[in-house]
Amino acid sequence: MPLSATKPPVGEKIDQLSFPVAGAQGDIVIGQAKDRWTMLFVYRGKHCPRCKRFLNKLNAALPAWQALLDVVVVSADTEEKALADKAEFGWDFDLCYGMEVSQMRALGLYVSEPLSDAETTGLFAEPGAFGIRPDGSLMLVDISNGPAARPDLDELLDGMTFNIENDRPVRGTA
């Protein structure tokens, strides 16, 4: 029986997670104190056409997102797969790779096994979006157990803008 993930508590600092950036030196670390908010998007990987559509929409709106916060995108893919996607689609956001199952679990993500080797060859995370405050605490969580359920990026950006500009409290803590 697969292990189920525990939802990370909103309002609390998340574990520091480090992800290598495709085609770049060094890693991006989330969960540490910094000057700006971060939106972390987790996608299923190169094998997922719904992910590509979602990330293409994110890339089209990227200037508005980056005016407000840092954007990080990650999957369990290899660097080779991440670079192939980045080259094919011309994405401008930081595209990270190599997400480990322990990191997926730390974020409360659903984890799937591939249906075949044609899909992918290892465990991968189902989609998630995480709004992280500058102090490393979790403000917003949106996770799905499959590729069809994703946040509307316009609504999410509007909501994050409101939350940041009005220093809104964390919701869903009861």
UniProtKB/TrEMBL annotation:
Source domain of life: Bacteria
Pfam families on file: AhpC-TSA
GO molecular function (one): antioxidant activity
Domain Thioredoxin: 8-165
Annotated InterPro entries: AhpC/TSA, Thioredoxin-like_sf, Thioredoxin_domain
Name the UniProt record assigns to this protein: Redoxin domain-containing protein
